[in-house]
Every structure is written in C-alpha cells, then in structure tokens.
Design a protein that fits this description.
Elements: H1 4-12, H2 16-24, E1 28-30, E2 50-54, E3 57-61, E4 66-71, E5 102-104, E6 111-118, H3 121-128, E7 136-142, E8 163-169, E9 186-192, H4 199-206, E10 211-219, E11 222-223, E12 233-235, H5 238-241
Parallel strand pairs: 6-10
Antiparallel strand pairs: 1-2, 2-3, 4-6, 4-12, 5-6, 7-9, 7-10, 8-9, 10-11
C-alpha cells in the first residue's frame, strides 16, 4: 500500500525532506481539516484518489491517472517534437500526474480521434501488446471503392493484418469528427487488433483505394464522445474498462 508521503511526492514533485517538514509543521491535514502527523501512513488502493489539505490548499492524491483525448489533425503523438505541435502539448497544464502520462499507441499527424494517455506503465504495456489483441476501430473517408480482402490477405511486406471487422458505410454513419474532403467518394468502418505504423492506410491501399480522412473512434471498449471537441480531454478509468483483459491465444488473434 502506498505511503502518504510518497503519494504527495508523486503528485507534487516535492522532495521527501520538504514533505517531512510539512508534516512536522502541521501543514498536512485530511479533507475535514484534521492534522495528519505520520508521513509513513499507508493508504489502501481503494481509498484513492484521496483528498488532503496542503498548507490549507486542497490537494488530491492519485496513484495513477488517465485521460481520453480528442487528437486533432496536424499534431503528432509525441512528448516533444522540434517541428510540430504535439498531442502532449495540448494536455492541460494542471492535469494530475501530467509529467508521467504516456500515450497508449500512436496516431499519425494526419489521423484524428481517440488518443488515450495513462501514467500506469503496466496497464499501458498490456493494452498495447499484440497478445492482448485490443481492437482499434476507425472510420475512413476514401477516394474510391475498395476490394474485399481475400482469405490470405497480406500487405506488400508480407505482414498479415488482423482485421476483425470491415464494412462499407454511408457518410451519415461516420463519426462527426472524421475529416471528409470533397474528394472522398466512399466511407468505411474498420477494426484491427494491432497498431502497426500506417496500418489502416496500407490496408486500404492494398485493397485498391486511398485514405483521405481517418479517425480512430474506439480503443477497446472506450469510444470517442461525439461532443468532445478537438484538443480537449476527459478523465477516464482505464482499469475499470480493461479489468477483464486477458491474453488472446495466438491462433485466435
């Protein structure tokens, strides 16, 4: 169970010496205003997030934090980039544990939509690892009709993408956030269970079409809210959404 002094350090970036000094001075109190004297006090995970007062100011302590971001076009999925705005730059400066957040997978510069961020490295590893086969769903605007993939479908490098769903769709069925240039002639709804670079674009290229607009609308059970504006984000409980996540046998991926 995490100690309260370590949680405060984790959430504020302060040194343990400063935190010990605050306890001795009576600067740490619970939400009701009762003084907390023991910096070694351990909180059960079920008690988190936990509210305290830090020298009279409210402070919420988290072990981990996660958000769902609506990534816009024109920004890259990175912590920093010398040439482009990054999705990390768009996260509010006052987000809890912001410095520890990492993107769950990537969206390229010309793909918009759902991008998850978490400070939980173990959970991040599980929900991005191929053996868990977490589905990623996309809406695509295409320049032309596409062929149905054959049973032995593979890309030009021999890679066989795991497509769990693929259907043609009407424009009215597409997510409101999908970029729809005037050159788009048809639309598609596709779900894959891996995150190779430009995978969805390469799939449609191999099927005889070209992606003009691409938006990730779901990652596992989490969907992009239609009313969440680009650049904005909402907190999300990733552990609750992926509580029943288990490895998928190799033959079923």
């Amino acid at each position: 169970m995490p100690r309260i002094d370590r949680l405060i350090a984790h959430n504020t970036g302060l040194s343990r010496k400063d935190i010990t000094r605050a306890f001795r001075a009576g600067g740490v109190r619970d939400a009701a205003g009762e003084r907390l004297d023991d910096p070694r006090w351990s909180l059960p995970p079920s008690a988190l997030p936990f509210g305290v007062q830090w020298y009279g100011e409210p402070l919420t302590l988290y072990l981990h934090y996660a958000v769902l971001q609506h990534k816009p076009l024109g920004v890259v999925t990175a912590m920093a980039d010398p040439r482009h705005r990054t999705a990390f730059d768009l996260l509010p400066a006052d987000l809890p544990l912001r410095r520890d957040l990492r993107a769950v997978g990537r969206l390229d510069k010309e793909t918009s939509g759902l991008l998850l961020w978490t400070s939980d490295g173990d959970l991040l590893h599980r929900i991005t690892h191929p053996r868990y086969a977490v589905p990623r769903r996309y809406h695509a605007a295409l320049t032309s009709e596409f062929r149905d993939p054959p049973d032995d479908f593979a890309l030009e490098d021999g890679y066989r993408p795991s497509i769990t769903a693929l259907s043609r769709a009407d424009a009215s069925q597409m997510h409101v956030s999908l970029h729809r240039p005037h050159t788009a002639q048809t639309f598609a709804d596709i779900t894959v269970t891996s995150g190779r670079f430009h995978e969805v674009r390469r799939i449609f290229a191999a099927l005889g079409s070209h992606v003009e607009g691409l938006c990730r609308v779901a990652y596992g059970p989490i969907e992009l809210p239609p009313d969440l504006p680009p650049e904005h984000c909402n907190p999300v409980d990733l552990k609750a959404h992926f509580r029943d996540l288990h490895p998928v046998p190799a033959g079923e991926r």
